[in-house]
Write a structure and sequence with these properties.
The chain is of the alpha/beta class. It contains 11 helices and 12 strands. The chain has a 7-stranded parallel beta sheet with strand order 3-2-1-4-5-6-10, sandwiched between helices. Strands 7-9-11 form a 3-stranded mixed beta sheet. InterPro entries: dTDP_Gluc_deHydtase, NAD(P)-bd_dom, NAD(P)-bd_dom_sf.
Length: about 325
């Protein structure tokens, strides 16, 4: 049996980076290619334990660079593509929407063209629940795969646009694909601008923890390793053309998350500092993952076990996030 070639875009980021390690460890018969531009959120130090593996390869490239991407695809002839690469920070999308359109929309379109040209067996597009917009606080209402797309930030609008392009390439050109839409991820190697790693690093350093508005916004938290297992299942078992929502059944307000971290680390709630709310801050995200569960997936982490593991990881790996905060990782 010939070895399969799997391209993972954005494999130096948080979710993509965890997925690279997951796949390299699980599938020794796959050649895994990590393609990343290494922007500010890209970090290869997380891959030191696998960088010498025979089945791991790194390619530095911009997904929006059509000539480079087409050349790479024609040379390597990938069997599968799992597409994580994206600008993903909502606050940054508010200050500079253009880069989100370039990377998330144009970059995805370039990858789709390249995938169609060489005839990949499956293109998995990793998206977000934010494309659905927001829910109110009714605990009986959830996002499903049939929920209309109503993005509220430049970031989520760019992701919704890329979702529609992926769908169009399936409907028009017959490109085998799946789209996954996940709830908020957390876990090891999370870039420390996001809520959970930011809070952990601030608390460990006895610094004030900023909380938007009154902290009542609700998110459904999904451990990144559960997300990796879900994408693996969709890649190999997902029905082509289908969308699968990935949720953790772990809804918490932002304030609850922050207080959990503070209490776990034995610090005072006086570290909490309420700040002006984010523009267009969605109230609540919550996913119904029934469709994916019928395919054979279930989350293994509750929020309690997952956040404890994550806090422990950040405590034991302070060297990693300290070099991120200092900028040392860019040198």
């Amino acid at each position: 049996m010939s070895r399969k070639k799997l391209l993972i875009t954005g494999g130096a980021g948080f979710i993509g980076g965890n997925f690279v390690q997951y796949i390299v460890d699980k599938y020794s018969d796959y050649d895994v290619y990590n393609l990343d531009l290494l922007t500010y959120a890209g970090d290869l130090t997380k891959h030191k334990q696998i960088e010498d593996r025979d089945n791991y390869h790194f390619i530095r490239a911009d997904i929006a660079d059509r000539d480079a991407i087409m050349s790479i695809f024609e040379q390597e002839r990938f069997d599968y593509v799992v597409h994580f690469a994206a600008e993903s920070h909502v606050d940054r999308s508010i200050t500079d929407p253009a880069i989100f359109v370039l990377t998330n929309v144009m970059g995805t379109q370039v990858l789709l063209d390249a995938s169609r040209t060489i005839g990949v067996a499956k293109f998995v597009h990793v998206s977000t629940d934010e494309v659905y917009g927001e829910l109110d606080f009714d605990p009986t209402v959830f996002f499903t795969e049939e929920t209309p797309l109503q993005p509220n930030s430049p970031y989520s609008a760019s992701k919704a646009s890329s979702d529609l392009l992926v769908r169009a390439y399936y409907e028009t050109f017959g490109l085998p694909m799946n789209i996954t839409r996940c709830s908020n991820n957390y876990g090891p190697y999370h870039f420390p601008e996001k809520l959970i790693p930011l809070t952990i690093s601030k608390v460990l350093n006895e610094q004030k923890v900023p909380v938007y508005g009154d902290g009542a916004n609700i998110r459904d938290w999904l451990h990144v390793w559960d997300h990796c297992a879900a994408i693996d299942l969709v890649l190999h078992e997902g029905v082509s053309g289908e969308v699968y929502n990935v949720g953790g059944h772990n809804e918490r307000t932002n304030l609850e998350v922050v207080k959990t971290i503070i209490h776990t680390l034995g610090k005072s709630e006086e570290l909490i500092e309420f700040v002006a709310d984010r523009l267009g801050h969605d109230k609540r995200y919550a996913i119904d993952p029934t469709k994916l569960e019928k395919l054979g997936w279930k989350p293994t982490y509750t929020f309690e076990t997952g956040i404890a593991q994550t806090i422990q990881w950040y405590t034991e790996n302070a060297e990693w996030w300290e070099q991120i905060l200092s900028g040392e990782y860019r040198k």
